[in-house]
Amino acid sequence: MKKVLQWLFRKPVAWLAEKVSSSPDKKAVFDSLSKLQQDIVNKKGTNGVVLPFDMGSARFIIFSDQHKGCRDHADDFAPAEVNYRKALQYYYDQEFTFINIGDCEELWENTPKAVIETNRLTMLEEARFLQENRYYRVFGNHDLEWNYLIQQNQYLKPIFGDQLKVYEGVLLKTKHNEQEYSIFLTHGHQGDKKSDGNPFSKWVVAAIWTPIQRFLEISINTTADSFELVDRHNIMMYEWSATQNNLIFISGHTHKPVFASLDHIDRLTKQLEKAVAAGDEEQAKRISAEIEKRKLEYAGKKFVKTMAHPSYFNSGCCCFSDGDITGIEIAEGFIRLIKWETDDKGPVRKVLEESPLYYIFDSLV
């Protein structure tokens, strides 16, 4: 009977989730991102931090959208936890600075207390970075509660310590060819009318969507399934980044990896076309297998346009349904889109895209 109910209700639940999950408005996105960036530059308030870095020696790992839950059928993070913890161990040992850019915990569906109790060991792994001053945390729309000191003091600081600060954005600054360049990081929900602190959307997810998910054992990663919607939001954030001078923008929120303003599935499609044209059957088979593996996350993907100005990056998410996670690395003078997946030997790191950082900066014209 439950399988019949799953079949009957999956589409209506997905439709409801899409209706309350995202509604980006271009003017609101532009205004919100511009204001946040300028507030951080001008040190207005405490909603951001400026971090100078050296292109040759800096090592950053940027993850977002873990959506840590409570190990039930509504918990999108559970399948990815093994890969995520292995990645944290790797980046800790390699002396990376960890920038966590929002929706780290799923607080629309769960209470802070329940999430903390369930994910204490994983969060302690994150806290090790802070103990060595190598951790920065940004809040998103699904963990907006961490923006408030009462919740930080009650739930986060017993794990991370009193030195923890939670920001809305981080601004990395460096120099190249005697010019200053910035890398602006924030979650990316700003200007999204149904995500930017909207209490109604939160209520629908908590009171209606989540109980249905748990009862029917349906795990729906709405943002990753609804690519027409996601593409629209990614394009808006790209368009904002293209109006900025000497700036790269890195966000999360949409759950869809983007590297140098072109999303990963579009790059795979172009690579497949090239391999077929060259008669490289082995390469074509490998790329086809990768696209097939992603068919759930990329269901309904529509090619929109090539975005040539390489100013926008998206970390993807740490809650893909197959347990894979994606993120952005900055290290050895390169910027990389990476994935951690599990093979027959366990979790492994894979570089999906990479470019020298100076090349990206030189292309921002």
Write the layout of secondary structure elements.
Layout: H1 2-21, H2 26-41, E1 48-52, E2 60-63, H3 81-93, E3 97-101, H4 112-118, H5 120-131, E4 135-138, H6 149-160, E5 166-167, E6 169-176, E7 179-186, H7 199-216, H8 222-225, H9 227-242, E8 247-251, E9 258-259, E10 262-263, H10 264-277, H11 281-293, E11 312-314, E12 325-331, E13 334-343, E14 346-356, H12 357-362
CATH class of the largest domain: Alpha Beta
Strand content: 15-25%
The percent of residues in helical segments reads: 40-55%
Shape: globular
- Assembly level: single chain
What is the spatial order of strands in the main beta sheet? 5-4-3-2-12-13-14
Total DSSP helices: 12
The count of β-strands is: 14
What is the count of distinct domains?
2
The helix-strand sequence is HHEEHEHHEHEEEHHHEEEHHEEEEH
Under CATH, the topology of the largest domain is which? Purple Acid Phosphatase, chain A, domain 2
CATH architecture verdict of the largest domain: 4-Layer Sandwich
SS content category: alpha/beta
- Largest sheet: number of strands, sense, barrel closure: 7 strands, mixed
Overall mean pLDDT stands at 84
Unreliable stretches covering 5 or more consecutive residues: 200-207, 220-229, 300-306
